[in-house]
Design goal:
alpha+beta; 4 helices; OB fold (Dihydrolipoamide Acetyltransferase, E2P); rod-shaped; 5-stranded antiparallel beta sheet
Length: 170
């Protein structure tokens, strides 16, 4: 039977290895928090518009006919889809969800305002564009900081796919 040699590491080396391990764990925890913060911020900023585009039951819904556009918004008249809504001569919508004057869009009115939000798949996906941007930024942190390249590719491709489908539908 062969005798195995046992090498003992000194206390300074053991402490150094423990400190390095703690630094690695700390880096992973910190960067995971950054990824979580980015994704939470994306959801938070998307939800302001997405709730009106997705949860239309009980909201005033109808169509808007685009009459005029300026640099950031378009205005037009709102015709309600049912008798519960009121006709409005002038409502505003974000210019990036419409292409030309005379276009008719399905919309929901933000409560208490004369601002409308596009509904349907195009409106829902457009509302979640900030979250898609957060996915793209998170992919960079996951790949570079956490060294999880496959996961980063999946996250990044989800963000790109969502942006691509959104702009195809608009």
């Amino acid at each position: 039977m062969a005798k195995t040699m046992r090498i003992r590491r000194g206390p300074v080396r053991r402490a150094g290895e423990s400190a390095y391990g703690l630094l690695l764990v700390g880096r992973n925890v910190l960067l995971s928090g950054v990824v979580l913060l980015l994704l939470t911020a994306g959801v938070w900023s998307s939800w302001n518009t997405a709730q009106h585009a997705m949860l239309t039951k009980g909201r005033e819904r109808g169509t808007v006919t685009i009459a005029r556009c300026d640099a950031e918004t378009c205005t037009g008249s709102f015709a309600p889809a049912n008798d519960a809504g009121t006709e409005r001569p002038k409502v505003s919508i974000d210019k990036s969800v419409t292409h030309k004057t005379g276009e008719r869009l399905l919309v929901a009115v933000k409560p208490g305002t004369n601002e409308v939000v596009r509904t349907g798949w195009a409106g829902i996906l457009y509302a979640w564009v900030p979250f898609a941007g957060a996915l793209l930024l998170s992919a960079l942190v996951v790949a570079g900081g956490l060294r999880m390249r496959r996961t980063a590719w999946v996250i990044g491709l989800l963000g790109v796919a969502q942006l691509g489908v959104t702009f195809l539908l608009l």
